[in-house]
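Hi there, hope your week has been kind to you so far. Thanks so much in advance, here it is:
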Amino acid sequence: MTRTNLLSKIQFFTVAVMANLAIVLVKAQEKAPDLKVDVDVNKGGNMMGGDWMSNPLVWIIGALVLILIIALVARGGRK
């Protein structure tokens, strides 16, 4: 057996082992354990409660104010 033939067989074996390990990793994540977690999310209508930051309207108004401030600063003292 020549040296290049042996190296190509070792490379082929290495690639085959790596492919099999990749398949094992993919199959290991296929099924998640059934944890039976009960999540209770209280979505009240109170805007000034603890979840007012999750309201999209707050983010839109905040972004508009930020853009307005940046535009005013970039404009400088020019009229």
Q: What stands out?
A: Residues 1-31 form one domain. DSSP finds two helices and no strands in the chain. Residues 7 and 13 are 10 Å apart (CA to CA).
